[in-house]
Amino acid sequence: MDYPVPMENFRRQVNERLRSSVDSVGPPRLREAMAYSLLADGKRIRPTLCLLAFEMFDTDVAAALPTACALEMLHTASLIHDDLPSMDDDDFRRGSPSNHRVFGEGMALLAGDALLAYALEFILHNAETLHPEKLLGVMAKLIEVVGPSGLSGGQALDLHCQGLDQVDPWTVEEMHIKKTGALIEASVVTGAILGGASQEDIARLTTYARELGLAYQIVDDILDETSTFDEFGKEVGQDRAAGKWTYPRLMGVEKARQRVRELIAHAVAELDGFGERASMLRWAARVVHDRAAA
Amino acid sequence: MDYPVPMENFRRQVNERLRSSVDSVGPPRLREAMAYSLLADGKRIRPTLCLLAFEMFDTDVAAALPTACALEMLHTASLIHDDLPSMDDDDFRRGSPSNHRVFGEGMALLAGDALLAYALEFILHNAETLHPEKLLGVMAKLIEVVGPSGLSGGQALDLHCQGLDQVDPWTVEEMHIKKTGALIEASVVTGAILGGASQEDIARLTTYARELGLAYQIVDDILDETSTFDEFGKEVGQDRAAGKWTYPRLMGVEKARQRVRELIAHAVAELDGFGERASMLRWAARVVHDRAAA
């Protein structure tokens, strides 16, 4: 599916800014490893969500661009670590060999560590015009998201559950919310914070983004079962082979699709009060919805 | 060597605060892995340096304790990742099996990631009384230290140089400064920032700490060649076996000791203007000096 024009514009701006972001960073080999994964072709979903949320409250998109890029850096850091042999052991990512296949395991580990820290550094270095309170709000949200209550907590649950014969639905849901939902939520919320949204609006967007993020992860797990390498850009059927706990495994593909539809309906309902301003966030929800049905 | 009473007090306070710091963090297995390495017996050099620098400018040590603990978390995160098979492949750390030997490689990777983020989260959650400017100053310093111009950059250089037949002394120095010096420097500098030190005082303490940190790493490399497992708490002779570039390899143990003496002399000279206030930082320099001669 093609992006609508405003989103294609955002993606182009993000890609341009990302390209120069690591030009002069760290020792050469580390920089190459960081750039290899960061600049690989990607949908830039998280930066785009950040900019879309920002635009609901403010027009000067340049003010949110560093944070949008940082979100992609954090996402990339987590992908590099996820692909490592001790984790998901994925040889491909976004249609190309994964980071450790090109740079070796040690350098891939360090590229992930470096991108994680550099995401935050990048915001701090480009925050001249930002009020300290907004800056601290954004930093706090991003730091929480990569920590034990976010990404690394979700991955740890995932890893731990792989060895188990039975896992309850709440644990699977918690894992998905932390593993994927948290960063999608942070994308929308940091955009809203930077745009100057009220606490009430931030709360509604938080719920929207959390449901959207969970739906997104469930769709990813459905596609791992139903799509092909060419469609998916990485190897398929890996989750089941690794004994991972996913919604499709827990309840079957059809019920997982049903859950996606429910989550998307809830997410979109949260946008009611925003009227036309939220039309692009509605569109984003529809994309996730349609992807599950494909 | 025994710690003088004020430093022993600091170490006790840091250990107490660290013990409760991860009580309710993340999923249980991840929490165990984080606590295992964080609460292992350690000298708490970085937190102690932070508190010593703070105390030169302010007496309310409680205000610097969260940052002191965060420094130990960052240090622990880097140790866990360094010990992984794809990096230094160390089976022991602080006299006990290393993190991945107990929790597996995947969980150790995540425990490192989680501690890295949680260090910053811990400061943010305990910053009620802190002025936003001081808070941002401390955060910026710590983020820089773990990123591509700090720890991960130093490790990447280390990894890259292992395959080379010849490395020039400047690269070895750069590697050491980033790998170890940067975090030692940040320990002293964050303490000074929190204490309200002037830019001039911060600059002098930065030089002191950078030289001290480099000396500390050289001593570590000397001990890797000259000490025993019991003295060192981890396997010895590993650097040379792995083809690592260290000062002893570059110039021999005697010249490396000479370099330590020079660095310590420079470091201590930077403290001249502080008079009695800097007596504990002088003591810390002497400890590193004497450790090299042992």
TrEMBL record, chains A, B:
Its EC number is 2.5.1.-. CDD domains: Trans_IPPS_HT (cd00685). Keywords: Isoprene biosynthesis, Magnesium, Metal-binding, Transferase. The keyword Flavoprotein does not apply. InterPro entries: Isoprenoid_synthase_dom_sf, Polyprenyl_synt, Polyprenyl_synt_CS, Prenyl_diphosphate_synthase. GO terms for molecular function: transferase activity. It is an enzyme of class 2 (transferase). This is Polyprenyl synthetase family protein. It comes from Streptomyces tendae.
